[in-house]
């Protein structure tokens, strides 16, 4: 009998496979302090949902409930921290994130700072206190460190250092922020996809990841764009956010209602 369910099977394992270089993980961003919305997008079957503490509207007290909702929805919970700060990174990991995403990384030194914040001594600077992470992973340091450290390249300076960043030990992947990259290249926020200078920078970062044998990811805005990036070799691909999905669905519905009237 055909399923009448509106959801697909959930696949947090798609995230782990993508990090292991064996598939492509598709996800979206969570910007709202709304656990029901986070759970709803997670239950749709996205491989990961990224809670965005850099630009999202949820305060730090909302982080754990959002991660719990993502867990309930069966997706991999990823957290973009506001800055390359060991305090934010440690808190995201202690709260139960499977991966942290560190924005605006421009050098191997900055990448190393992010990696060290994810690891306990002697390999890093993380302080022990896995408050919620221990419920998911136990108290052992090895299991607690079994999370991913992803850094973002989203400036011209970062692109110039892509090979050094990708070769930094402990960096599991690089995500490209196409909008910040476009602004950094002097192109403005609205014109990035397809612009030759932008595309050249994107391809340079992708090639650096491939040379270093780490995962490349990118944010997109349409399913076609996401499929195109997957064909190019990106393995962590996000599109939009739950807020954008709500806004565009509402706009299209209203447009349809008005034009049908
Ligand atoms: C950007 O496009 O700058 C982003 O950070 C998207 O993730
Ligand atoms: Mg950005």
Written overview of the protein:
With 261 residues, the chain is of the alpha/beta class. The chain has one domain: Phosphoenolpyruvate-binding domains (TIM Barrel, Alpha-Beta Barrel). The protein has an eight-stranded parallel beta barrel with strand order 1-2-3-4-5-6-7-8, surrounded by eight helices. Helix 2 runs parallel beside helix 3 and helix 4 packs parallel to helix 5. The longest helix is centred in the last third of the chain and has 19 residues. It is globular, with a radius of gyration of 18 Å. It starts with 11 loop residues before the first helix and ends with a helix. The site of magnesium ion has 5 residues, from helix 10.
Number of helical runs?
Answer: 13
What is the N-to-C order of secondary-structure elements (H for helix, E for strand)?
HEHEHEHEHHHEHHEHHEHEH
Structural class: alpha/beta
Stretches with pLDDT under 50, minimum 5 residues: 1-10
Describe the sheet with the most strands.
8 strands, parallel, barrel
What's the architecture, going by CATH?
Alpha-Beta Barrel
Look up the CATH topology.
TIM Barrel
CATH C-level label: Alpha Beta
* Helix percentage: 40-55%
CATH superfamily: Phosphoenolpyruvate-binding domains
Average pLDDT works out at: 93
Strand tally is 8
* Gross geometry: globular
- Please give the domain count: 1
User: What hetero molecules are bound to the protein chains?
Assistant: 3-hydroxypyruvic acid, magnesium ion
Lateral strand order in the biggest sheet: 1-2-3-4-5-6-7-8
Strand share of the residues? Answer: 15-25%
Radius of gyration: 18 Å
């Amino acid at each position: 009998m055909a399923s009448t369910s509106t959801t697909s099977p959930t696949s947090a394992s798609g995230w782990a496979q993508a990090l292991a270089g064996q598939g492509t993980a598709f996800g979206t961003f969570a910007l709202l302090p709304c656990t029901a919305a986070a759970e709803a997008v997670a239950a749709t079957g996205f491989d990961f949902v990224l809670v965005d503490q850099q630009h999202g509207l949820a305060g730090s007290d909302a982080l754990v409930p959002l991660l719990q909702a993502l867990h309930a929805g069966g997706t991999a919970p990823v957290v973009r921290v506001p800055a390359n700060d060991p305090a934010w990174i440690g808190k995201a990991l202690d709260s139960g994130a499977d991966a942290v995403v560190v924005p605006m990384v421009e050098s191997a030194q900055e990448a190393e700072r992010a990696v060290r914040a994810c690891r306990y001594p002697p390999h890093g600077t993380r302080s022990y206190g896995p408050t919620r992470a221990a419920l998911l992973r136990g108290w052992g340091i090895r299991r607690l460190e079994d999370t991913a450290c992803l850094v973002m390249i989203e400036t011209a300076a970062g692109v110039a250092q892509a090979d050094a960043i990708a070769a930094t030990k402990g960096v599991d992947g690089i995500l490209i922020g196409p909008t910040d990259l476009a602004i950094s290249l002097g192109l403005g926020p609205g014109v990035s996809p397809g612009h030759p200078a932008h595309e050249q920078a994107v391809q340079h970062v992708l090639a650096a990841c491939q040379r270093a044998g780490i995962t490349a990811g990118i944010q997109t805005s349409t399913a076609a764009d996401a499929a195109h990036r997957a064909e190019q070799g990106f393995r962590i691909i996000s599109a939009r956010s739950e807020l954008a999905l709500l806004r565009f669905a509402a706009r299209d519905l209203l447009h349809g209602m008005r034009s049908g009237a």
